[in-house]
Design brief:
- There is one protein chain.
- Helix 3 crosses helix 4 and helix 4 packs across helix 5.
- A hairpin with a 2-residue loop joins strand 1 and strand 2.
- The protein contains 5 helices and 8 strands.
- Among the domains are: 76 residues, SH3 type barrels, CATH 2.30.30; 69 residues.
- It is an alpha+beta fold.
Length: 216
């Protein structure tokens, strides 16, 4: 309805709390719109705008002016409104059911590409697992261990340069370093300083080493 069509004292069908009910306009509201009385519940309600009024009651809507307190529609207008609402719900439920059925059918169909990808991923996982479970090979001895072996065979003190030459000659160790003798010297000194009596080497003279009691 339009604002100029609303009359004080008139009875109309209005949407109140989500339901249609017959109301009587009692006057204009100071907050805007109109004050009205719900003719079923006798409660005072506020009609904010003319658009909330669906149809005029009384003679113009005879036989369509009552709504049961229990919520059941007793007039054609309310019945029509609820019918439309039920139809909308039914249509929405049908669309949802159809969509779910379509998705289920697609999931049930075989997908060669997806199956191949899953198989490849599983094979890769198994291969990675097998590789992780494979025992590691025996570690090659380090330069300190090889140096100890050389001194054990020599049975006399040697300098680091001679020890490195012996190790390289045996082919049990390789290096790209430019000063392997200096590297070995530093490693032996570090072991002596760190392990003390438990070190495998003993310094006999400047730059000369032999096996200690712990290294024999």
């Amino acid at each position: 309805m339009k604002k100029h069509e609303v009359k004080v004292g008139g009875e109309y069908i209005a949407k109140v709390s989500g339901k249609l009910a017959q109301v009587r306009i009692t006057g204009e509201s100071r907050y805007g719109g109109w004050d009205a009385t719900n003719l079923v519940t006798k409660k005072v309600v506020r009609i904010k705008s003319a658009q909330r009024l669906r149809a005029e009651g009384g003679r113009k809507a005879a036989g369509a002016t009552h709504v049961a307190v229990g919520g059941e529609a007793t007039n054609p207008l309310e019945a029509h409104y609820r019918t439309q609402k039920d139809v909308a719900k039914t249509e929405k439920a049908a669309k949802v059911a159809a969509y779910r059925k379509e998705v289920a059918e697609k999931l049930a169909q075989p997908d060669p590409k997806l199956d191949a990808a899953v198989k490849a991923a599983e094979e890769g996982r198994q291969a990675k697992k097998a590789k992780a479970a494979k025992p590691k090979g025996e570690r090659k001895p380090g330069i300190l261990t090889l140096a100890a072996d050389v001194l054990k065979d020599a049975k006399t003190p040697m300098d680091c340069k001679a020890i490195v030459e012996k190790v390289l000659a045996k082919g049990t160790w390789q290096t790209k370093g430019k000063t392997p003798a200096a590297t070995l010297y530093s490693a032996i000194i570090r072991e002596i300083a760190t392990k003390g009596k438990e070190a495998r080497f003993h310094k006999t003279d400047r730059g000369m080493f032999e096996l200690s009691a712990a290294g024999k």
